[in-house]
Amino acid sequence: MKIKIIIAVSLVAVALTVWFATNLLGCGLLNTNTEQGYASDRAFRTSTVESFAFETTTIDSLDSGPKAQSTTIDTDVAAEQMDIVQNGSISHILYVKRVTALQYATNAGGSWTISTINNSSASGAYFSDPSIALDSTGHPHIAYIGTFDAPANYLKKYALMYGTNASGSWESSVILSPYRFLNSMGEEMCIHYEKTAKIMVDSSDKIHIVYVLLTTEAGAVEYNVYHATNASGSWVTTCLWDQNIGHPSTTKPSAVIDARNKIHVCFWSVPTKNLTYLTNASGSWTNTTIATNKGTRNSISLDRDGNPYIIYSEDATVQNGPSMEYYATNASGSWVSRAITDLCPSSVSNSLYMREDLQLKFTPDNRKHLAWAHSIQLEYLTDSSGSWQKYLLLPSATRAKFDFDSSGSPIFLATQYVASSNTFNLLHINELPAPTGEAH
C-alpha cells in the first residue's frame, strides 16, 4: 500500500482539510470526522526494518488524494467485544450490541447485512469475547462466552459457546456448561468459563478454541489455559497451563494455528508476572518464558514461514513512563526480544497512552503490519513499501482489529466513543481506490 505522508512535528492546533479535521494533542493527532476523505499520516524511518526502531522524519507535502473511508456498521455496541476476518473483499464481523445481543455483520451481498445470532435481553443473559474464523469454503465459525443466571445460591454460569452458519442459518451450541458439584473429597467445587481467546479452523476444517477456565475449590481460585477441539468428531479439552495465570480480564491468551495445524499460544501470568509461550509444534505441549515484568498486553502471529512473533507491552507503571512495546521471535532458531522504540513524549500522561489490541500480522510477501488503539486514536504502521510508515487512522478508538483483503491491504474494525450519547460506534475502515491517474 503506497500512501503519501503528512507529518505533524509541533504541539499546536492544526486544521487540515483532510480525512479528519485534525488537532494535535499529547503525542498524536486527534481527528474529528470519520467520513471519507484523506489520511492523516506521519512517516518514520528505521536503520534496519527488523529492529522496529522508529524516528520522526521531516514534514512532507500535503497529499490531496483520498486514501481511506470508514463505514458505521452499528451504534451502541460493546466497546471491547468484536472480531473480524476477511475472505477476499468480503468482511465477516462478530460483535456484541448492548451486551445482550451477539450479532454478525457481512458485506458478502454487496451491502451490509446484520444478523442476530443470540439475543437474550429478556432473560438477563449477556455475551462477551466473540471470536470468528472461516473454514475452507468461506463459512464463518464463532466462539464466545454466554453468561446466564443460575439458580438461587449459585454463581452465574459462564458457558463456552460455539456457532456456525455452515448449514445456511446460524446455529449455536454449548461446548462447556458447568455448575457447582462435589469433588472426590466431598468439597463443594464450582467451575465456570472466562474469556474465549481465539477460535481457529485447521486445514481439515476442524475447530480449535483456546480459552481460560476458572476453578474454585475451598476458597482457592485458579485460572488455567485450555484447548478445546472437535478434531476427533466430538469435543475434547486439554489443559495447557495449570499454574494459575490470574484473572483473564488482564491475561486473556492469544493464539494462532499454523499450516501444519500446530497451535501457538501466548499469555501473561499475574502471579509470576511472566509472558509465556505454549505450543504443540513438536508434537507435545511445551512452554517457554518470553519475558518477565512485561507482556500484560500481547498477541501472537506467524510470518510467511510459520515462525511465531509475539508483540507485547511493558506497563507504564513498571517503567514509570508511557508504555514500551516489544516483539519476540524464534525465527533464528532461538528466542530473541527487541524493543519497539516508544513514539510518545514522556510528558504525555500514562493513562492516555496505554496501548490496547496490539497486533502484528504478515502478508504473504512477509511485510509487517502493526496496529494498536490507545484510547485517543488508532495507529497503523507498515513496512509494505520497503520503509516504515505510520498512519493515524481514527480518533477515540477504544479497540481495533484488522485483517487483510485479497490484495494484502488491511481492513480495520474499530469501536469509537461518541461523547454526545456516551456510547460506542462500530466502524469498518478500508483503503479507497486511487483516483484515475494517481497511484497510492
Any overview of this molecule?
The protein is mainly beta and 440 residues long. The chain has a domain at 253-353. Helix content is 1%, strand content 52%. The strands form eight sheets. Strands 4-3-30-29-28-27 form a six-stranded antiparallel β-sheet, with no helix packed on it. A hairpin with a 5-residue loop joins strand 10 (126-134) and strand 11 (140-148). The longest helix has 4 residues, at 316-319. The protein is globular and about 60 Å long.
Global shape: globular
Structural class: mainly beta
Beta strands, count: 33
- Low-pLDDT ranges: 1-66, 342-352, 435-440
Please state the CA-atom Rg, rounded to the nearest Å. Answer: 22 Å
Number of helices: 1
Spatial gap, N to C terminus: 7 Å
Helix content estimate: under 10%
The fraction of residues assigned to DSSP E strands is: over 45%
Average of pLDDT: 74
Strand order of the largest sheet: 4-3-30-29-28-27
Largest beta-sheet details: 6 strands, antiparallel
